Amino acid sequence: MILEFWKFFLKPLNESVAVKSDFMVKKAPKLEVSMRALYRSEDGVIAGVCKGLSEILEIEVGLIRLAFLAFLLIGGSGIVGYFALVFALPRKDKLPQALEPKILGVCANLAKKTEIDVGIIRFFTILSLFGSIGLSLLFYIILKIILSESESNLKDLN
To answer: Where are the domains of the chain?
Structure first.
């Protein structure tokens, strides 16, 4: 189920490319990855996480809510995951502003450089802050310094 979840967001675009081998030249499909944006619905029950995920995955919202409830009852991870998604995912009506910097702009810069959805990067950043008890905050600040230096070096080259 988890693999199918990620396959849904990573859909290949086919383009043919000439591939050389020692024996022959043949055409092979070139796979490029395109991400679908994760978002919260603007008219959900609590914060729109379940409804937004159900719209993206095209399944019933009740199944998503049931999954969060099951994770809540199994160790309480559902509540942590839900609120991490509340802070990480933009609302559907605010998707154009999703790449604007929030705190230091690290997640937005990483999303632009890696072409990964900013909601996914913010979600894992929030989860790592809970799990590492501060080490992620140090890593976040180091990334801010590195990304700032790389941007200034690019400006100097231009």
So the answer is: 37-97
